[in-house]
Amino acid sequence: MSTLAIVEDVLRAATEPLGPKDIAARAGRRLPSRSRTPDTVIARDISRDIIKHGESSRFLRVARGLYVLRNGAGGRAAVVRERLEQRSRRVSG
Q: Taking the CA atoms of the chain, what radius of gyration do you get in angstroms?
């Protein structure tokens, strides 16, 4: 399985946005890369996928370093993004 396929599985099972370190911890030995820093491989691969596919990417960055599946769990990505934006406005304002 590719790194992105495993990341997709992990995010599908997640109930909240995850960062690359959390994804790597949950994926464990399933990751094909034996890098000493699997979180950087994950972040790189997700970023490249988003850049390459744009709106059709299966991943969505909802905040700095936090990702969800774009179409995961019945459109949960939009709800998560809105909640994070509300939280950000409360903290900064």
A: 13
**pLDDT tier at 84, thresholds 50, 70, 90:** low
Domain that holds residue 66: 3-92
Return the structure tokens found at 73: 């769990």
What beta strand segments (E) does 1-93 contain?
59-63, 66-69
pLDDT in tens, 7-36: 999 999 998 899 999 999 999 999 988 889
Find the length of the chain.
93
Element containing residue 8 per DSSP (H, E): helix 3-13
pLDDT (0 to 100) of residue 71: 82
pLDDT at residue number 72: 67
- What is d(CA 85, CA 59) in angstroms, rounded to the nearest whole number? 18
Asked whether 15 and 26 are in contact (CB, 8 A), the reply is no
CA 53 to chain centre: 15
| Number of domain units in the chain | 1
